[in-house]
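Title: Comparing notes on inverse folding

I've been comparing how different people in this forum approach sequence design from structure. To keep things fair, I'm posting one structure and asking everyone to reply with a full sequence. Here's the target:
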């Protein structure tokens, strides 16, 4: 209840508890897990904010499972999340986009039912030029009746099985967005108090948006239907906005409407983005905000993953804009 008209000061944890009272996640269990994520992202934010000062720019010289040069901040972000969530007790398995294999959390309680999949610092190659980057997470529950050691069987669940998903965008301000299937809610990190404070509740993606977001440099290798859509969009006075950092492009699309596409290309015939660590969590958020997400043939959230680092084409945004793309491509 707002006191004398002033909006209440709501943090992520209190929001989860308030909104989840009627939900199976109402136990403090889940908000305790989420507080591990908010803690980790505050540490990451402090490193990203000071990248030029603390020598964390640049590459480690290593190459990750995705075949990408590992940036120092990738390593810091990855370790920070593993250290923050690995001791919450209720997380049994963690899988990072940066690591070949999942992590079985030995310190977990016997019944540790949560699985956390994450991209610790998406878009990190942009850090050296001060472009927004982000952390993306997806939360599943262990599948009942499956051998606890059959780790991949627990992880390779379709996106509809996610119990929560979210991201943090490190930009002009640091914003934490999450859903547990009860709408999308956003919190801005207040550096003065070190807390995420509720700034947008029940976010709705605009029905329409005359903005498309794609790397048109590859358009010669896009599927023919995609190329026809892009030609149509230009005749329909659409704008092109493309940051090249997924969380930034998605955050803008979520708030302003429009459509983001990463189609198949000659270099990435299955698409570049990862199903488990990027497409599934962002598609869950998009649908919860009234939007849609497809791989061009089917709903992203219904895809049954075959491997940990599986890639997928992604078309995500306002439902009518996604449908428009599909009218050309499927
Ligand atoms: P391209 C960043 O490397 C990333 O994984 C996403 O953040 C971003 O959407 C995409 O790649 C950009 O890829 O091929 O346009 O540079």
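Reply #1:
Here's my take.
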């Amino acid at each position: 209840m707002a006191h004398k008209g002033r909006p209440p000061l709501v943090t992520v944890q209190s929001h989860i508890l308030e909104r989840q009272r009627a939900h199976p996640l109402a136990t403090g269990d889940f908000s305790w897990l989420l507080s591990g994520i908010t803690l980790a992202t505050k540490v990451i934010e402090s490193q990203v904010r000071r990248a030029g000062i603390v020598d964390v720019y640049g590459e480690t010289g290593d190459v990750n499972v995705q075949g990408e040069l590992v940036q120092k901040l990738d390593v810091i972000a990855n370790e920070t999340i593993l250290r923050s969530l690995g001791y919450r007790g209720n997380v049994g398995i963690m899988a990072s986009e940066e690591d070949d294999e999942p992590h079985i959390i030995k310190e977990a309680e016997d019944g540790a039912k949560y699985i956390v999949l994450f991209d610790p610092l998406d878009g990190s190659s942009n850090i050296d030029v001060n472009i927004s980057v982000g952390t993306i997470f997806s939360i599943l529950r262990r599948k009942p009746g499956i051998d606890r050691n059959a780790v991949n069987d627990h992880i390779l669940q379709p996106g509809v099985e996610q119990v929560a998903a979210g991201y943090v965008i490190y930009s002009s301000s640091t914003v934490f967005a999450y859903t547990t299937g009860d709408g999308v809610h956003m919190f801005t990190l207040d550096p003065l108090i070190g807390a995420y404070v509720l700034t947008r509740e029940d976010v709705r993606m605009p029905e329409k948006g005359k903005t498309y977001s794609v790397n048109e440099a590859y358009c010669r290798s896009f599927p023919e239907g995609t190329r026809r859509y892009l030609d149509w969009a230009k005749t329909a006075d659409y704008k092109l906005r493309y940051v090249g950092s997924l969380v930034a492009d998605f955050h803008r699309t979520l708030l302003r409407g429009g459509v983001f596409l990463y189609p198949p290309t000659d270099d990435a015939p299955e698409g570049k983005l990862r199903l488990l660590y990027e497409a599934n969590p962002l598609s869950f958020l998009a649908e919860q905000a009234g939007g849609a997400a497809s791989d061009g043939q089917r709903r992203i959230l219904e895809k049954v993953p075959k491997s940990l680092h599986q890639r997928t084409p992604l078309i995500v945004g306002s439902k009518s804009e996604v449908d428009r793309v599909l009218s050309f491509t499927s």
